[in-house]
């Protein structure tokens, strides 16, 4: 690991190194401020990448204080604040950065993502459209516009935008997940399953997150493939054995496939994890009643 003094030296050299004849011109106070700003920015970004958000915020505030109109410093400070949960202030700084560089499509899109995260979907939609004016191939902007269209009750436009986002970023997991959900809402079950499988292929074998496995199981269930749904939920339950909601869904899938004993066992595991879980209680009571009728 590079020690802090050496890292500061590297950052300083990056921002202060003279180039050509410009090295001989007289430095102005503005030049010095920019140099200080960039040094603190360099150190702040490094701290942010290392997960030290508090130190990153401190350094990046000093960068912004040194050069308030430096858009890069503002963007980095916004990200540090966002990482610390200071959403309102993060958005304020990102808006200043965008005012300084309104043609920076990635920054405009990121501002829209932040605004979307706090429910400002109409603003987010405008940011996405603005970003696409300057970079029509920016996948994140297409994805943001798609989500904004969905939130503002424009599902057809949302689907078109998400498909466009995938053209520019074929393995974007967030977009694939959003598309799978869209196909589910539209009851396009085969496309839903194919999209989920495409999502799962982006992960190394055996490393797909539980949420993706559950999405696959739901897609199978929508097609009436209860055995496949149950198999997927068993894998998910092995990875997340203390989730009563997941175990209850597994019990429902086992029951739908005619495996009553397995369904009862899964429901009992759910109640062992949380004895107050009402869906599991109701399911177990229903299974017990069905078993009594058969006898």
UniProtKB/TrEMBL annotation:
Organism domain of life: Bacteria
Keywords of the record: Repeat, Signal, TPR repeat
TPR repeat start-end pairs: 139-172
PROSITE patterns: TPR
Signal peptide: 1-17
SUPFAM superfamilies xrefs: TPR-like
Protein name stated in the entry: Tetratricopeptide repeat protein
Organism: Posidoniimonas polymericola
